[in-house]
Structures are given as C-alpha cells and as structure tokens.
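Hi support team,

I'm filing this because I wasn't sure whether my run with iron/sulfur cluster finished correctly. The job status page said complete, but I'd like someone to confirm that the output block is well-formed before I use it downstream. Pasting the exact inputs I used:
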Amino acid sequence: MKYTPRALIAEVTHRCPLHCVYCSNPLEMQRRSDELSTGDWATIFEQASGMGVVQLHLTGGEPLSRTDLTELVRAGREAHLYLNLITSGVGLDEPRLDALIDAGLDHIQLSFQDAEEAPANEFAGTRSHAFKLRVAGMIRQRRIAFTINIVIHRRNIRRLEEMIAFAEQSGAQRLEIAHVQYYGWALRNRDALLPTREQLDRSVEIVDAARERLQGRLRIDFVLPDYYAKFPKPCMNGWGHQQMLIDPAGRVLPCHAASVIPGLEFSSARERPLRWIWEESPAFNRFRDESWMPEPCRSCDRRTRDFGGCRCQAFLLAGDAATTDPVCTLAPMHTIVEETLQRVNGGGDRSWVYRIDPR
Amino acid sequence: MSGLAQDSVLRLAPGCRLSAAGGPEDLLLIPEGALRLKGPARTIVELCDGKRTLPKIVEELKRRYPTEDAFRIETEAVALLSRLRDRGVLEHV
Ligand SMILES: C[S@@+](CC[C@H](N)C(=O)[O-])C[C@H]1O[C@@H](n2cnc3c(N)ncnc32)[C@H](O)[C@@H]1O
Ligand code: SF4
Ligand code: SF4
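And here is everything the job wrote out:
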C-alpha cells in the first residue's frame, strides 16, 4: 500500500451543548444510542496504531459529553498514540482535567468564538464564554500543550486583533485562527458568515504583523477561506492519503464531510477491519489516485499538489464530486463561487440559523 | 533567532515527546504532527533531559560516536537543538 494513515480523527459523539452558527459538522448527525462503546474505540485505536497512525484527535460534537473520555484517552495512549483533545471546554472541571492529563493527554485545543463575551455567546448560541475563560485558566496552570482555536467570519473578524491579544495572555503556546470552511451547518449559514474581500485582506495583514511580533512566544496557524483563493486547498492532503475519520457510529471516512457524497458506501469499523477499509474499500479508493480527474485538472501541473481540491466541496457546490473543485479559478463551475462572492461583497449582514443538538 | 548559549539546559516542551523506543520509526510527536528523526537525532533529543548543559550533551555525543568527526558532531547537534528550540519543541529549563 502506497499510503500510510498518520492521523485518526475520532468523532466520539455528535452531541454538543453549543450551537455554533459556523459548525462544520454534518446536518445529519449520529444519535447517542448508535455511538461506539469504549471497547469499540479501544479496538480501533489498536488497529490504527498497527497501520502506522501516530496521532489521535478526539473531537466531535463535544468529546467531553462522553463520560468515558478519560478511558478513551488511556486506551489511545496504550496504543502508543499521541493524544489531542479538540474541545469547547464545556464539561471540564479541575478533577476531570487532572484525570485526562494523568491518563496521558498530550495536547488540548480549546475553541473560542470571540474575544468579547456577548458576541461569543451569540455565535455559540449558548452562554459559554465565561466558562471557557475559566477552563483556559485551569489549563494554563498545568503542564500540558495548549492551543487556542478561534473561527473567524464576517461578524467577528473586526475583533481579530483583540482575539490575538487574548490568546497572547491566555497561556497558550499556539493559536489557530481559522476562517470558516463551508461544510455542514456552516454552508447553510454561508452568506451570513463569508467575509468581504476587504475584511479578508485586513485579516491577512493583521496575522502577518502578529506573527512577526509574537515570534518565539506564540505560534500562529492561519486557515484561509478557499472561496477567495486562486487555487483550492490540498484537502486532507489527498483523499485517503494520510488521514481517516471515524464518526460516532463507527463509519470510516476520508474526511468529516465525505458522508454527503452520494453513491459512496462507507464501511463501519464495527463490521470490517480498519486495514481493509483503508486499503481495499471502494470509497477510500474512489478519489485516491488521479484516474477520476476530468479536465482541467487532468492536464494541470498543480494536480500533484492540490489533488484537484476538495471532493466534498465539488459535490456541495457543483452537484458532482468528480469535478474540479469550483473554488479553483480554472474550474468550469467557478462562476458559482464568483456569484456568491459578488453577493456577499454587495449587501449588508444577513441572518443565520442555529445548529441543533441530536438526541 | 540565533544559536544557543553555552549554559543552555533544554528539555522537551509540554506536548512534545519521542515515539516509543524500538518502534517502527523514530518520531518526535508534537501538537502539529510528527517530525521524523534521522540518524543520531533521537539520541540528541534524548540527552535533553533538563539537567545536562549544552557542552555536556556534546561531550556525551562524542563519547557515543567516537569514530565521527568531533567538530561535525558539535555543529550538527547545536543546529538541531536550536532549530527545535525555535519551533517551541524544546524549552529552556
Ligand atoms: C467541529 S469542532 C468539535 C470540537 C469541539 N466541539 C469544539 O468546537 O472545539 C472541531 C474544531 O473545528 C472548528 N470548526 C468548527 N466549524 C468550523 C468551520 N466551519 N470551519 C473551520 N473550523 C471549524 C472548531 O472551532 C473546533 O476547533
Ligand atoms: S463547533 Fe460548536 S457546535 Fe460544533 S461541535 Fe464544536 S462546540 Fe459544538
Ligand atoms: S485545475 Fe485542478 S489541479 Fe489545476 S489548480 Fe485547479 S483544481 Fe488544482
């Protein structure tokens, strides 16, 4: 097998006490009663490690909504994986944090919606900001790697400098600033969330200046909105090349959005060995090499770098997963993206819809 | 950023650790992913135990690799360590 999986993204639940307007989680979510058990996950971690996976990202939904999270961390460490928890912090207290660290947690990525309380709570659809601040305080007192994640969009981007200043004094070593990626719920709210070209340019300037100023103190990762890019992002570094995602019910996917693509059957880790799913399953092989590519990708020099962009985005925007990602300026369907950009660069702010939690 | 002071004492920063000894490959696991360690790199990082000073690390390396050029050992070790320090993988004690 040419491709070795290096990271496993484990969506351990879709349940979440927050209702972020930009949430990229799928519209159709797995229910609690369908969730994998602690033992199911432990078996998966063992298999993944044996295949070459070194990093385990525990995410969701809100992973803290699972009462067995500490056991999941322990099982991951026993399988020799590096343990990263991606969390809103809601559900954490000091004893639980200590237990997670004792069990072998290596890194926490804590998300914030804003630097200011009122808008943060508005974007989360929950009064969670003050609690998150207390969680950040708990984390900084302990010896564990700490990243702050803030998703930025049209309605909070004007406070980007305040967000960076907040991260700077939070005790985090790293800040991830991510422009919204338009999947799941976020796509539904796209017109309300997409920044204007001016806002985007300003955010790039601010981040560049902050990186310079904070060198050696705070590392900044910056995810740009691909709608404004000339070429698409190398999504997941290639379909089935380095990463796999397992959803709460055990379905194994090349990425978190892939379940939207019709006609692909994603096998369950409950029913099949992980190695078979990775190496042999038709879904993982569907877009792995270049044989699916139409023009202009097929004869484009960039195809080995961006793999023709994101298959899920191609389906979501153009209705065909096997076409060039419409964000690419060379794509035949690029006009869809241009029209969207014209729309959001024209009018004023639009309203959004809140995400709801599965039962 | 520049080189390392002679009295530097380094250790792995929180969230950074070596892959299990004797595993299929030597990796330095960090929040952003994994760095592949080639040749003596694993040993060099292991010597950053939060106690040894830089000269002690170099001395120990020279002892362990007696057939290698001493000057080369020193420049390569210092280059690796300062790079890892700049990336936040190693921290000063
Ligand atoms: C889906 S969340 C799940 C973990 C946890 N509930 C949280 O929010 O931190 C995983 C990460 O993706 C980020 N995120 C959510 N929706 C996003 C989007 N549309 N674009 C980019 N990042 C997003 C979150 O801020 C979080 O860091
Ligand atoms: S992004 Fe918000 S709504 Fe989505 S899973 Fe995380 S906390 Fe929940
Ligand atoms: S045409 Fe295809 S390969 Fe070329 S830049 Fe666009 S998406 Fe990438």
